C-alpha cells in the first residue's frame, strides 16, 4: 500500500508499507481524495511541534471498507470525512463545549501505526495520515456523511473549510452587518470569505498578493479586495474604507507574524482579531503593552475552527449542497500520490487547494 510520510525534516517519501488490520475501535478507510494543506509542509519543514516519522495528510474523504468489532459510529460502505480534531464527548473539555480541546485528541494523534526500518514507528498526522491509498483510523477520527458530493470536495471540508468557516461561525460569531477583513486567500481564507457572506457580513475585505485569488474572492462573497503588503499602508487603507475605524473583526489566515500584526492593527478599537493560520512554533508576536490595553481589542486563536466535527461537518455539507458555499471552485489542482507531485504542490502559491485523487 502506497503511503506518504515525513521520515525526517525535509525528507519526504512515498513508499509501500504493509496494510494495518483494524483494532477494536478502528476503521479502515479507502481514501477517495486528500487535500494538501500548508500545515503538512510546515510539519515537513520542522516548523510545527510534531514528532517524526509521521504519515502526512489530514484532509480526508473516503469510504469505510472494514471496521473493528467494537466500532459503533460507522458501518462498512459509509462515506466519511476526516475529523482533524476528534472528540470523545465525555472528558472535562467536551462536556464544557470545548470539544476541539478534547483530552483524547493528542493520545489518538500520537498512537504509533506503522513500523519502519530500524525499529522506528510512524503515527498519523492529526490521526488521519491521508497521504495514502487507504488507512486504519480510530473511529472518532471520522464523521459519516450522507451526500453525493465528490470526494475531492468533501476532503477540503475536513480542514480548510471547517477551519475557515468555523473561525467565522464558532470563534468570531460574525453577525449580519459586521465589517470584516481577511488576510490570506488560500483554502482557509477563501472559506472565511464564503462563511462570512453566509453569516451576513456587510463588508468583506479580502487581502492577497495573487490577483486570481482576489478575483475569485469577489465572486465568492468578498465586497472589496486589496493587494497591499502587510504593514501600515494596508492598515490605513482599511481604516479609510471603514470610516476611519477599522474592521469589526479581522482574520489572519496565512500563519506569519507580520500578517498577524497587521490583522491586529486592521481591527477597530474593541474589535476582534482571530488568528487562524499556523505560524512557526518558534516565532514570537510582539505587541506593545499599552497598545494591547488601550485598544481594548480581543485577540484570540481559532484552533481548527473551534469546530465539533459531528455538528459542523454535516452542516457544511448542507451549505455546499445548496450552493451557499462553493467547494468546486476551491479545488484548483489534482495530482497523484507521488512524492514529486506532492512536493511541487507544497510550493504552489497561486492555487487554492490541490487534492490527491486515485
Provide a descriptive summary of the structure in words.
The protein is of the alpha/beta class and 358 residues long. The chain is built from 10 helices and 18 strands. Strands 3, 5, 6, 9, 10, 17 and 18 form a 7-stranded mixed β-sheet that branches. Strand 14, helix 7 and strand 15 form a beta-alpha-beta unit. The radius of gyration is 20 Å and the shape is globular.
Q: Provide the succession of SSEs.
A: EEEHEEEHEEEEHEHEHEHEHEHEHEHE
Kindly state the percentage of residues in helix.
25-40%
Q: Biggest β-sheet: count, sense, barrel?
A: 7 strands, mixed
Strand content: 25-35%
Nearest-angstrom radius of gyration? 20 Å
Instruction: Write down how many β-strands occur, each being a DSSP E stretch of 2 or more residues.
Output: 18
Structural class: alpha/beta
How many individual helices? 10
Distance between the termini: 13 Å
Mean pLDDT metric: 95
Q: Which overall shape is indicated by the principal axes computed on the Cα atoms?
A: globular
In the predicted model, the low-confidence regions spanning at least 5 consecutive residues are none
Which helices and strands appear, and what pairs or packs with what?
Blueprint: E1 2-8, E2 11-16, E3 26-36, H1 38-44, E4 54-55, E5 59-67, E6 79-82, H2 105-110, E7 114-115, E8 121-124, E9 134-138, E10 142-144, H3 151-172, E11 179-183, H4 187-199, E12 203-207, H5 211-219, E13 224-226, H6 232-241, E14 247-252, H7 257-266, E15 267-275, H8 289-294, E16 298-301, H9 309-321, E17 331-335, H10 339-346, E18 353-356
Parallel strand pairs: 4-8, 11-12, 11-14, 12-13, 14-15, 15-16, 17-18
Antiparallel strand pairs: 1-2, 1-4, 3-5, 3-9, 3-18, 5-6, 6-10, 7-8
